[in-house]
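User: Can you recover a sequence for this backbone? Please restate the input before giving your answer.

Assistant: Of course. Working from this structure:
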């Protein structure tokens, strides 16, 4: 191992990267792409190249010629994976070719080519003919846990064994008698005639529908079970169901990858262009150079917390990140929690006479947006009562971003119906809003986990 000095320009470049999922591209001095990678956390992944003084010969060779880093944020790790694969195939960077290996992310496989299909995870080279596949899935442990939960709960009761048998080729009775799954009731036992072919394949079709996208009814049922468990104070059971829900949400993450030309790769994320586009989309008089995002987090109404994050000139400014313990809102009331945290942040800005943001971005839909509007109105009334005539002439614009649908709701007038704004997933204004929303969510979740684990002193 040998020591390698890091280019200070590159250090500044990776320090400004977002903490969410995305794809990064490393270029040489002439601008040619020499390496493409994906990350669940762009900043953490790219910084790992530069934070070690002793590096291996492969990394040293790469870093010796890297002069610029581009990136594009993605909605999910899964989208980043698909985009990375597409771009590597299209641009064939030299270092990707040098380091190519046989590793790949797994797919969910339903072996519909068999009389009695199985459901399991497999990598692309291991998939049998006639099978239906879904994926790939970067979060392997989550998908493994989901399949395990589907089997154990009986929601998808397919055989977990690998025995080779069919209607015309019955399984040896000795193997049936020695099967642990059969004796413990963990299998519908088609090999022993406990279920007929037609009924068994109906279960397999159910698995296909679940992984293929038909999940709303099952998710709704799981959410009801989770709430019922929480009401009975069975928090461990509720947490297990919540993990199952999160795994299902992982498999339904949408992947939005479009064809990208070499010219478009010249500047994947340009902060100035993004805030200019956002001002255009929202109809703002000025570019929102100071944006603050808000989110809250709780587990069945306990340890409720919230966060506010700050973006200046289209980039995160962590000196102005804040987290809050919810004090007033009781139970699972997202609207009351949002009103409290936005109100507390604005009251602080008003009291300290600090510069107000040009835009407040709320994680949620019209309900959360309305709560934030009420908090803003209260803050201005407080300021006017304390110092008459001091209601600011320019107040922040208010916008919320709904999860999954990725729809913006704009409301700058108290009492007015929010304006619904749909943008393509490739729009830079939407990508910036998603980044802010996801950063607020990440910051709130991190604080919530500390509270639950006892890492933060109780109030």
């Amino acid at each position: 191992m040998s020591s390698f000095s890091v280019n200070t320009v590159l250090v500044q470049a990776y320090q400004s990267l977002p903490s969410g999922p995305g794809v990064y591209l490393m270029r040489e001095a002439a601008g040619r792409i020499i390496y493409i990678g994906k990350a669940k956390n762009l900043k953490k992944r790219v910084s790992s190249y530069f934070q070690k003084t002793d590096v291996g010969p492969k990394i040293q060779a790469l870093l010796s010629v890297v002069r610029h880093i581009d990136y594009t944020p993605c909605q999910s790790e899964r989208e980043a994976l698909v985009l990375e694969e597409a771009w590597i195939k299209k641009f064939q960077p030299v270092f990707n070719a040098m380091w190519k290996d046989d590793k790949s992310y797994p797919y969910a496989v339903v072996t519909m080519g068999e009389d009695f299909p199985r459901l399991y995870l497999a990598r692309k080279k291991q998939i049998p003919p006639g099978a239906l596949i879904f994926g790939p899935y970067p979060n392997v442990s989550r998908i493994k846990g989901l399949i395990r939960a589907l089997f154990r709960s009986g929601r998808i009761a397919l055989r977990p064994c690998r025995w080779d048998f069919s209607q015309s080729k019955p399984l040896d009775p000795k193997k049936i008698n020695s099967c642990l799954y059969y004796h413990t009731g963990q299998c519908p036992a088609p090999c022993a005639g406990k279920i007929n072919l037609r009924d068994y394949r109906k279960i397999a079709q159910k698995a296909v529908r679940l992984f293929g996208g038909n999940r709303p009814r099952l998710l709704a049922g799981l959410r009801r079970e989770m709430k019922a468990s929480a009401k009975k104070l069975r928090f461990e059971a509720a947490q297990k169901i919540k993990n199952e829900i999160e795994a299902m949400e992982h498999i339904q993450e949408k992947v939005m990858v479009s064809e990208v030309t070499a010219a478009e790769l010249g500047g994947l994320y340009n902060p100035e262009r993004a805030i200019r586009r956002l001002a255009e989309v929202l109809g703002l008089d000025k570019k929102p150079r100071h944006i603050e995002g808000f989110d809250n987090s709780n587990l069945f109404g306990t340890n409720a917390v919230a966060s506010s994050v700050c973006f200046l000139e289209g980039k995160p400014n962590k000196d102005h990140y804040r987290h809050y313990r919810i004090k007033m809102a009781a139970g699972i009331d997202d609207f009351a929690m949002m009103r409290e945290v936005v109100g507390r942040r604005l009251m602080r800005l008003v009291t300290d006479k600090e510069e107000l943001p040009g835009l407040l971005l709320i994680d949620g839909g019209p309900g959360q947006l309305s709560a934030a509007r009420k908090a803003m109105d209260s803050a201005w009334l407080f300021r006017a009562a304390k110092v008459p005539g001091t209601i600011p002439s320019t107040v922040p614009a208010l916008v919320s971003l709904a999860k999954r649908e990725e729809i913006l709701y704009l409301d700058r007038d108290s009492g007015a119906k929010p304006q619904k704004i749909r943008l393509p997933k490739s729009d830079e204004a939407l990508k910036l809003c998603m980044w802010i929303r996801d950063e607020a969510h990440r910051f709130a979740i991190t604080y919530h986990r500390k509270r639950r684990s006892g890492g933060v002193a109780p109030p």
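That completes the design. The chain has three domains: 2-98, 107-251, 270-453.
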